[in-house]
Amino acid sequence: MGEFSGRVALVTGAARGIGRALAVEFAAAGADVVATDIVAQVDSVPIGLAEPSDLDHTRKLVEQKGSRCLTATVDVRDADQVRAAFDEAVEEFGRVDVVCANAGIWSTAPLLGMPDATWRDMIDTDLTGVFHTLREAARVMVPRESGRIVVTGSVAARMGTANMAHYTAAKWGVIGLVKSAALELAPHGITVNVVAPSFTNTAMINNSLNYHQFSPDDPTPDAAARVWAQLMPMRVPYVEPEEVARTALFLASDAARHISASTVDIAAGWNANYTA
C-alpha cells in the first residue's frame, strides 16, 4: 500500500518526459492515473512532439506498477477538451485528488523576428493551458474540500532569456497564476505549487536544434552536455525527469499539506543566480 493508494492523479503532457515520470511515480506510490497528452505536432514547435504510441507506453508503465490508467488525447489549449478529460476521470474513478499541470511546448525565436503564431502557440499552451487545467481541477476539488495541484514551471520563470521571450513570459505568468489560485483555493484545503526545473533530460533539451545552438562546432549530445555542465553550478548537464516528479510527489503528499503558493527549484544550483 503506497502513500497515494486510493487516490487519483491526473497528469497533462504525460506521453513522455517529465509527464511520463510524474505518471509513473504517482503510480509507484499507489495512485491510479489519468494520463493526457496532445500526441500531435504543433506547427510552431521545431522538435517532434509525442505520438499516440508514447502515451500508450506511459499507460503500460503505470499498469506495471499495479495501478489503473485512463488515457485521453487532450489539447490543453482547448477548454472543452480539458473539461471532458476531468469529467471522464470523475466518471471512471469517482474523484481527482492530484492534478499535475505539466503540458508544455518549447521553441526559440528572436523577439524582432518572432511570428505571431509562435507567440500564440506558446502562450496558449504553456500559460492558458495551465489556466484551463487549474480551473477544472478547482471545479472537481472544491466540493470535496481537498486537493493538490502541482504545475511544471521552469527556471526561465525567474530571469530573462534571450530568444525565448514567449517561453519566459508564459512561465513567469504561471507563477503569478499559481500564487493567485493558491489564495483562492486555500480555504478549501487545496494547495497549488510550482516545480521549476533547469535543463532536464528530455526531448525538449536533447535535440539537434539545441546541440547546434549550444555546441555549433560539435553538435553532438556529448559535446552539448559538456557545455550545459559548465552552465550548471553542480556541473551536471541536466536534472532527470524523475527528480522533478519526486519533488511533485512530495508537494502532493500529506507531509506538504501546508505548503502552497511556492515555487521549488530543481536546478542543480542554477537558482543561486537569481533573487529569492
SSE blueprint:
Blueprint: E1 8-11, H1 17-28, E2 32-37, H2 52-64, E3 69-73, H3 79-93, E4 98-101, H4 116-141, E5 147-152, H5 165-185, E6 190-197, H6 208-214, H7 221-231, H8 241-251, E7 263-266
Parallel strand pairs: 1-2, 1-4, 2-3, 4-5, 5-6, 6-7
Helix pairs in contact: 1-2, 1-8, 3-4, 4-5, 6-7
Radius of gyration using CA atoms only: 18 Å
Number of strands: 7
What spatial order of strands do you see in the largest sheet? 3-2-1-4-5-6-7
**Which percent range describes the beta-strand content?**
5-15%
Low-confidence runs? none
The total of helices stands at 8
Classify the secondary structure makeup into a structural class.
alpha/beta
Shape: globular
What's the pLDDT, averaged over the residues?
Answer: 97
The portion of residues assigned to helices is: 40-55%
What does this structure look like?
42% of the residues lie in helices and 13% in strands. It is of the alpha/beta class and 276 residues long. It has one domain (8-202, 240-273): NAD(P)-binding Rossmann-like Domain (Rossmann fold). The chain has a 7-stranded parallel sheet with strand order 3-2-1-4-5-6-7, sandwiched between helices. Helix 4 (116-141) links the parallel strand 4 (98-101) and strand 5. The longest helix has 26 residues, at 116-141. It is globular. The mean pLDDT is 97.
